[in-house]
């Protein structure tokens, strides 16, 4: 997706998310997120979309600080309906920057530096995953598209695998804890979305960093097939409509599960 398409993706998912959250009772359980209820989900989303994403996309890398981020976190309340309103306002702020801000400017990105536009797909991925959580909470299926699922899979496998250690260390620092960097497997594996034909080959570079390449490459030791929705759910430890069909060493494929590696 280009940025305009990604903005449309986020806009649609955010509108559906707000509608589902308003329909849910605050204490309604979210089965995909054990221990959470609808109020917990709305609070998590307002933390992300009124604090985390607007701050990170709009703050130059040289100005970013943990204190600045925490100051925005501190503004988040606990009331379910108020948080839904704040989520919508935060999405509007984020999308305003996406449309009119300097997307080429360097921003902080989990200890590294990326153009501000890097945050657009990261936000879209998180929103799509949590939209499926919210729909499942009400016994429905989210209206997210295979294109959106594949964009999220591509974002996770191309961006987040290489940053898992930094993500864990950032979250641990914000909570005052410590985190050990994960170990990535040394043999290639692949994921194939049967409904779109898109595929991603995952392997470790010589420097130990996880890398992704488009397509199904030769020499992979395990291949996981499924719908784009189920592949995305599998990557995040969410309920699936059907288990992946796996060719090769299933244990190796499990080593690439984002949820198991990062517990996000």
Textual characterization of the structure:
The chain has about 260 residues and is of the alpha+beta class. The strands form 2 sheets. A 5-stranded mixed β-sheet has the order 5-4-3-6-7. A two-stranded antiparallel sheet has the order 1-2. It has 2 domains: about 140 residues, Four Helix Bundle (Hemerythrin (Met), subunit A), CATH 1.20.120; about 110 residues, Nonspecific Lipid-transfer Protein, Chain A, CATH 3.30.1050.10. Helix content is about 50%, strand content about 10%.
Give a short synopsis of this structure.
This protein has about 260 residues and is an alpha+beta fold.
Main sheet: strand order:
5-4-3-6-7
Question: Which sheet architecture does the biggest sheet show?
Answer: 5 strands, mixed
Order of helices and strands: HHHHEEHHHEEEEHEHH
CATH class of the largest domain: Mainly Alpha
Number of helices: 10
Q: Determine the mean pLDDT.
A: 89
Percent of residues in helices comes to 40-55%
Task: Tell me the layout of helices and strands.
Layout lengths: L2 H21 L14 H21 L7 H8 L6 H21 L5 E4 L2 E4 L2 H20 L8 H15 L3 H12 L13 E5 L5 E6 L5 E5 L7 E5 L1 H8 L9 E4 L1 H5 L3 H5 L2
Parallel strand pairs: 3-6
Antiparallel strand pairs: 1-2, 3-4, 4-5, 6-7
Helix pairs in contact: 1-4, 1-5, 2-3, 2-4, 2-5, 5-6, 6-8
Give keywords.
single chain; 264 residues; alpha+beta; Four Helix Bundle (Hemerythrin (Met), subunit A); Nonspecific Lipid-transfer Protein, Chain A; 2 domains; five-stranded mixed beta sheet; two-stranded antiparallel sheet; 10 helices; 12% strand; globular
């Amino acid at each position: 997706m280009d940025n305009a398409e990604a903005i449309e993706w986020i806009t649609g998912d955010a509108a559906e998310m707000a509608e589902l959250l308003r329909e849910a009772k605050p204490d309604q359980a979210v089965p995909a997120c054990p221990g959470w209820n609808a109020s917990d989900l709305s609070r998590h989303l307002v933390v992300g979309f009124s604090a985390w994403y607007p701050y990170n996309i709009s703050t130059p890398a040289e100005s970013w600080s943990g204190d600045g981020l925490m100051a925005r976190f501190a503004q988040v309340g606990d009331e379910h309906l108020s948080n839904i309103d704040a989520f919508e306002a935060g999405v509007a702020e984020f999308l305003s920057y996406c449309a009119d801000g300097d997307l080429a400017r360097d921003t902080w990105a989990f200890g590294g530096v990326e153009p501000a536009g890097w945050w657009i797909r990261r936000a879209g991925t998180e929103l799509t995953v949590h939209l499926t959580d919210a729909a499942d909470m009400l016994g429905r299926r989210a209206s997210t598209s295979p294109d959106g699922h594949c964009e999220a899979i591509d974002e996770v496998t191309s961006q987040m695998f290489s940053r898992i250690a930094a993500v864990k260390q950032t979250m641990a620092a914000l909570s005052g804890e410590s985190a050990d960097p994960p170990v990535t497997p040394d043999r290639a594996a692949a994921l194939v979305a049967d409904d779109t034909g898109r595929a991603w080959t995952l392997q470790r570079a010589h420097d130990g960093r996880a890398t992704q390449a488009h397509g199904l490459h030769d020499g992979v030791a395990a291949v996981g097939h499924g719908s784009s929705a189920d592949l995305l759910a599998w990557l995040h430890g969410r309920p699936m409509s059907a288990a992946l069909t796996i060719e090769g060493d299933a244990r190796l494929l499990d080593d690439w599960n984002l949820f198991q590696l990062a517990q996000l």
